[in-house]
Amino acid sequence: MKKMTPAITMILAIMMILTMMTACADGNTAAAPTDPAVVSEAPVAPAETAEEVDPVVGSWRMPPSPFGDDFEVFIVLNADGSFLNATNLYDSGNSGSYTQTVTTNEDFYWVKVNDTTVDLHYNYHDANGEFVTTLNYDPVGDKFYYGREVYAERDNTFVLVN
After folding, report:
1. Entry pTM
2. CB neighbours (10 Å) of residue 124?
């Protein structure tokens, strides 16, 4: 027991020193000076730049139906990784007054696979499971492609109706 006491004391002393060092390191950040002369001489930090928004974020309009249907379909990719599908169903023809249906839930999300590829994940919480649609983004034309076909092109005129 007499041989264990110095060893335990040494271990506790080392732990105490390490604890003090980490506490001092955490508290070593300088507090703001209280002297107004010193405050005015302190260098001013540059203004924070706005977060860079991914170029795919925004509203996208799917191509119109070749059959002249009376609706428009949009996909809206949000900066937080969620998305929604919206359909504007016109009362008459393909312009004028319309009703809007929105489809989304907490399991509709998009993931950027690389600079030009985005995966849309749809989960309707039914027996079919999750659907994944892989889209290729063309920054020059500002369009999404599904395979070789245009899936959607940017449309900043979209308005979400409450």
Report:
1. 0.64
2. 13
